[in-house]
Hints:
Elements: E1 5-14, E2 21-29, E3 32-38, E4 51-54, E5 59-62, E6 64-69, H1 76-81, E7 84-89, H2 98-101, E8 111-114, E9 118-120, E10 133-135, H3 139-152, E11 156-159, H4 165-177, E12 181-185, H5 194-200, E13 204-206, H6 211-215, H7 225-228, H8 238-250, E14 254-256, H9 259-267, H10 277-282, H11 286-296, H12 301-304, H13 307-319, E15 323-324, H14 340-351, H15 356-362, H16 365-371, E16 387-390, E17 404-409, E18 412-414, H17 416-420, H18 426-439
Parallel strand pairs: 1-4, 1-5, 6-7, 7-8, 9-10, 11-12, 12-13, 13-14, 14-15
Antiparallel strand pairs: 1-2, 2-3, 5-16, 16-17, 17-18
Helix pairs in contact: 3-4, 8-13, 14-15
Amino acid sequence: MGHTVLYLKNTNLIDVVTGEIALSNILIENGWISKVEKVEDCEGNISSGAEIIDVNGKWVLPGLIDMHVHIKEGFAPVFTASGVTTVRNTGGNVIELKSLIEAPPGAATPRVISADRIIDGPPGLWGETSQWNINIDNAEDARKEVRRQVDAGADLIKVYCWLSKEMMEVVVDEAKKKNREVSCDLVYSKDVTAIDAARMGVRWNEHASGIVQDIYPEWTMQADDTVWDTIDWDNPDKARIEKVCKVLLENNVIICPTMVLLDQANLLENYWFPDNKVMEKVKENVGLIQQWERILGYPMKSLGIQHIMNKTIAKIYFDLGGMVVAGTDTPAGIFTLPGMALHRELELFVQAGFKEIDAIRAATIVAAEALKCPELGVIKEGAIADIVILNKNPLEDIRNTKEIDFLIKGGTAYTQDELLEQVPSEETVMKNVQAFIESFEVNV
Length: 444
C-alpha cells in the first residue's frame, strides 16, 4: 500500500502481555508503532498524510515468530503470507540466505535470524561435509568452524546429534567467546543427553530432544524393538520427565518442541493440510511436495510414536516456569508446511494443555524475549510494526490464527495475494542455488 504512515482504526487488539482485548487505534510511522490508544481515550489527532484503515473490529495480533525453520528463498514469502513475520533459521547457510537476511524491514519475506551450517560428528547424519553441514572430530577444526560461522554472520551455532560430547563442549566454549548461543538437536544422539547439553551451556533444546535418553538411558533412536517396547509412549512418566525438566530449568534452557513435526509423522497419510490460498500456492512447489511424499514412503513410526511424549514434556516444562517457544522445523519431515505449520503448532500447544493466550505468546512475546528482541512479538509504542489482522477471535478458538484478513510487515501493509505473488520462479531459485554452490568452499 506504500504509505510510510498508517493508522489502524477500531482494532480488537489482543494484548499478549495481559491477555486482554481492547478496541484500539494504532499509529504506525516509518515501520514502527508510534502510538497505541484505546478508542475511548482517542483524542482524534492523526498524523497528516496517514493512510487510514478501518479494521471494523477485527482481531489484531503481533506478527508471529516461527522459532525453528530451515528457510529457503523459494518459499520465503509463503511464511509472511501466513502471518509469520520473523523466523529463526536453525541450520542452513547464511551466505545462501544473505538476500533474505539483509532484506529491508518492510520486505515481503520474513525477518531471518539464522544459524549457519550444522556442526555434526562423522560420518554425519546428513552425510559428508557440505555447504549445509560439517562433520568434526577434532578441537582445532571445531573452533575454526565456529569462528568462520560468526565471521560469516551467524546469529547462533547449531550442534547436531552425532557430535561427540567432547567436541560439543569445545563448540560451546568457542561460541561463548564469540558471544553466540548454541542450539542442539539430540534426536538421534547416543552420547549426549539433554542434561549433558544443558550443563555444557547449550541454551536451546530443539524438539525437546535428549530428554527421553535421560529418562531411559538404554534407549536411543537406534535401539532395537525390545527397548522401544519397554516405554509406554502413550502414557509418559510425568514424574521422571519433571525430574529432568527441573535440571534444564536450573540451566535456563529454552525448549522448542516442534510438536507439528512429530504430529505429522504420527498422522502419516492423514497429515494436516488446511484448505486455503496459501496452501494452494505451496502445492505449486513441486520439489517440496515430492520431498514430503518420498519421506512418506519411509518408516515414520519412530518419530510419530513420540508425539504424546513431546507434548507432555513441553507442558511440564512450561508448568515448572520454563521457557517454551513455538517452532515447526519447516520443511523437515512430512508436510511441515511453510508458515501454516506454525498455526498447527499453536493448535497442538492447546491440545497439550496450554491456554490459547499462552500458545500465542509462545509465538510472539515469549519468542521475542528468548531472542532478546523486545521490539518484536508485541504491539506497543516503540515496537516494530509487524501486525496480523484476523477475521475471527483466536482466544475463542486457536484455529482462528490462520483466518488472516491482511497483515503489516515492518510498516508495509500486504494482502495475502500480494505476498504470494512475490514467490520466485523455480528457474530463479535454481539459478541462485547453483551460483551459491559453485561459490562456497565446502572444506573451509
